Amino acid sequence: MRKHIVAGNWKMNNDLSQTAALISDLKEQEKTSDAEVMIAPSFTNLWHTFESTREDDIEVVAQNMHFAENGAYTGEVSARMLKSIGIRTVILGHSERRAYYNETDESLAKKVDTALANEMRVIFCFGEELADRKAGNEESVVEGQIKNALFHLPADAFTNIVLAYEPVWAIGTGETASPGQAQDMHAFIRKTLENKYGHQVADDMTILYGGSVKPGNAKEIFGKPDVDGGLIGGAALNADDFYAIVNAF
Ligand code: PEP
Fold first, then answer.
1. Can you give the pTM of this predicted structure?
2. For 70, phi and psi rounded to 5 degrees?
């Protein structure tokens, strides 16, 4: 079922005391929209954040995980480890992971499979780079990312997937896709799903937009019919700004 979701990706920010301070600020916020709220702290802060928000209307999610179930992968974290501390959702394929840690469509397909096999929900990120858009290739790039990482899945797997379209040129740059650009791409993504899996899967899919969403632009972006929410980076580090975005629905 299609939902409104606003997810905050804290990236590699906040030590434990900063995390505790942000959580206490978040707890003072009032949610006036129907959006599901998620926050993604770093691995070291997941357990504390999960424990501290048990009573709150906030889901704590992971920023990444490995595709192997376990084994000799120094420095990595498995789906089972995440599940054992209560984490049920993982962000996969963020452009920073693709760019700095060589994550590819192929390795992401494996991560998606492992997450789903462990009954986790996936927020799957993808998006074109500036050069792709300048060359007019944004749709073919996005289509390729989705097909290569997800189109081996059966239709029912998509009930546990949320898509996050994040044009790389808009992440952390202050430059946002216009609401029209976001809507056009989200409609294209839905059409791509429909062509492969049919109308129902496409219509039920929650598709988030990410890229410099702020309190000042969230309402207009979320007002577009195929935009079901946002993946928020910088603005998620401030509780007032984050909830202004959550409440933009
Ligand atoms: C992100 O990293 O997913 C993101 C959208 O960041 P920002 O909101 O800072 O552009």
1. 0.97
2. -170, 175
